[in-house]
Each structure stands twice: as structure tokens, then as C-alpha cells.
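Assess this today:

___
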Amino acid sequence: LELKPDNPTAQMDLGGIYKNLGNLDQALKAYRQAETLEPKELKHAASSKLFFSDLHQNNNAINIEREAYRHGISELKQSASNLKKSNTSFSTNMFWIAYHNRDDDKEILESLGKVLLSVQATTLTKNINAYERVVDSKEGIRLGICSDYLRNHTIGKLNIGMISVLNEHGFHISIFRGADAKTNAKSLEIDSYAHTSIKLPQSLEAASEIIRKERLDILLYTDIGMSPYTYMLAMLRLAPVQVTSWGHPNTTGLETIDYFLSCESVEPANAQSKYTEQLIKLRKLPCIYAAPETKMVSSSREKFQLPSDQVLIGIPQSLFKFHPDYDEILEDLISELQNTKFILIEGQNNPQTERLKSRWAAKAPKTLKNAIFLQRMSKRDYLCLLETVDILLDPIYFGSGNTFYESMAVGTPLVTMPGDYMRGRIVAGGYKQMKLHNAPIAADSQEYIKITARLAKDTELRKALKQDIRSAAQKYLFDDQEAADEIIEFIRAAVECRRETGGLLPVDWMPTSRKY
């Protein structure tokens, strides 16, 4: 930029660097400069107008940013005819919408999808709902699975078991990853269960043609919203049946996604109203999760340099899950308990951690005083930490996913308070599946505090609950073959229904292949 100050591409790159470093003000400044230099580029305009912070100081700050986001969508709509479509992905910051605990997510995401598609509309969006081939029983259903995170990542951990089982049952599996997707030993293991694994090019047009040539019957996006690249692909119709699930637990707002695969025990009564997709509610969590190896896992306060004479309450979650409303609950809880510390893990970058500390300094000083932030760590160390703490807390509104499974393997009680959306109800649904009669599930914030305080003060109660959790998890949670049967039945039914009727399954469809 010193050599060429009017270079919009360099400004966009600079914005991305600042964003990764957690310097959000400078990131937004760079994006706006790029838009000023090249106002007709969709990716510049979107990056400038569709922006969220990762942590908010209060609810008013959330409301202000959401209103600005809505306004940004309106501005894009007004200028849609003058904007150049982008053949590469760009950020819309839609990921953050799910963390705000607001009831208009669906409305915002529908508006976003329609505006972007109106700009991007090309032959890429051609309709291929109709089958172009007859399913060959010898080959099996051709299933595509698209994600940038099928590796040693939460998404990889939640889906590897399902991919393995589908391979065993004769599905012809093609895995698609974006050009920037990382690879590691876990991604290679996942690939071993597929017939083909394709790293797609940056060009959305080229990528869409590659996927179409696989002649898929059904395409599963495991986590729409996590990656700008897969979100852009999901706007296109690349298979007759297109599905997403709880990797990113929010509706996509896209007309091209037919189903959202979920579970009846984690969805509220009015769940379908929160989705643009047709909601499929299995009776089991849509996951076949192998029990983590815990032979080398042990409790060690010394390892993490934690105090030996205090009760340790772990909340080792991404810091952006800490909604401003959670501060008051934590402050009331720590005020009631003596000799207690909250154990957390530092954020994705230092500014993110400092933003939370700054908020707590103003709103929850006792919480900050009694919080210990550990450095980010390996999977084995993380399991050791889950074993080391006395109690775990599930953040309100947007709770645990992968951590739930890992904590159940070691048995540490995870106190939860189900929210109004699936993303805050997974732990409670998991406990229900485990048939845990004394599960630490709170009806409201006061009971959340009461349950946690009781566990903190009663060592024997914690020990007994830990034993019950381990036993129930082994029986009813890990390597769940009933969940596998349900997923397989859904895939086959959805493909058959599209092929024979051209439509979707009945709105009240549920699997039947269980022995209850």
C-alpha cells in the first residue's frame, strides 16, 4: 500500500489480516477503503457493509450492529444492478448472527441470501432438481459431503463416525473441500472412508461444475455458515437433494437447501418456524461419535498450574459464546461460592480475550477476579482439563457441542440451561438420550446457579454423578447405531422422494428404523 495506496485488493487483504489479529476497527476501515476505491465489486461492498464484532459489551451493542447489518443488506439490494458478481467467495459475517440470541435470524438470513443471489445470478444457478440418472443399486446412492473443516476440528470430530458408517452401508461418498481448507492426519482418515476426495478451486463456477460432474443424488453441507466458501456454493443447486445440519446450528436462509437435519430432543415446540429448510427431527442426535480415548487422560492441577485448595468450575468454550446476559449469572454464582475459580481458555487472539476481560471489569468484577485463562491446548490436554475441573458450565443461549461428548467421556458434570433455540439445547437433549435421571439441567438462571452451587459444595454428589454420566454415555451416547439407522433411512427416503415425486418428504416425516 505504500507503493500503491489505491490498490483495493491490498486493502481487502489488509482487512483480513487485521480481522485475524482481532483488530476489528482497523479491519473495517480497510474494507471500507477497498469499497471506496472499487465500489462496484460485490465482495468489497459486502465486507464493508456486512460486519459484526466477535464480542459485544452489552445487548444494545448487539442491537446496533444487527440494525447496521440489516441496513447493509438493504444498501446491497438497492445497488444490486450495479454490482459485479464475484466468482470467488467473500465474507458476509453471517457466522456471528447465531450468537446474539435474537428472534429474527431467519428473516435476516433470508434477506441476505436473496440479495446475494440476485447479484450472483448466472447459469450457475440452473435448476437440477430433476434426476439426470437412474440410481444404480450396485453403485449405491451418490452422496456428496462438503465442508472446509473435515479435519481435526469440531466438524471433523462430529462427522467422521457418520461418514465411516455410510461408507460401510454402500453409499458412494464424494468429499469436497474448499481451496483454502487445511489438511492433517484426521482429514486423511476421513478421506479413507470416501470413494473420492476433491479439493475445489477458488473459482465458484469451476467448483460448481466439478461437483455437478459427480452426478450426486444428495449433497450434505455439514456446517453452512462456518466458511464463506461453502456458503456461496450452498446458494447453488448442485444436487437434486441438498441438506445441512447442526455443524453451524442456525438456518441458512437459502431456498436451495431442502432439509435441516436435527433431533426432536434438542428442538423447541415451534422449531420449524425458525428454519427456511424443512426440519427433520430424528429421535437421536444426528451423530455417531466414538468414545474418546481416555486411558492417558488424568486429573492434574499441577499440569495446568491450578490451585489445589479451590473448587474449579470449567467453562472452556470459545469466548464469543459468552453473551452479555451470561455475565450476571456468573457474577451471582461466584458471589455465592467461596474458594472457587472459573477456568477458561484464551480467545482466538489476544484482543478477543481482552474485550471479554474489559466487559467483566465493568459488569462482573468478581467473575474477572476469580477467572483463570489458560493458553489454547492440544486435544489430549483439553481432555485432561475436562477431567481436572470439578464442574463444567454450558454457556447460555449457545452451548456445547463437541465438548459435550468429550466431557461425557470423562464424566465431569456439565450444568446446562436449555434456551429457545437448538444451539442452546444440545446438552439437555444429550442428557435425555443418555436417560440420565439426575442430569444437571436447569429451568432458569436461578436453578442454574443453585445446581452449580450444590455440586460445588458436595464432593460426594459430584463423584456419584460423574460415575452415572460415564456409565450412561457408554450405553446410550457413543457409537450410537440407532442414530446411524435413522440417518441412513432419512437419506434414502429423501432421495427416493425427490426421484419419484420431485418434491420433499412430508413435513412430519420421522424415521421408523428403531427398536424402542
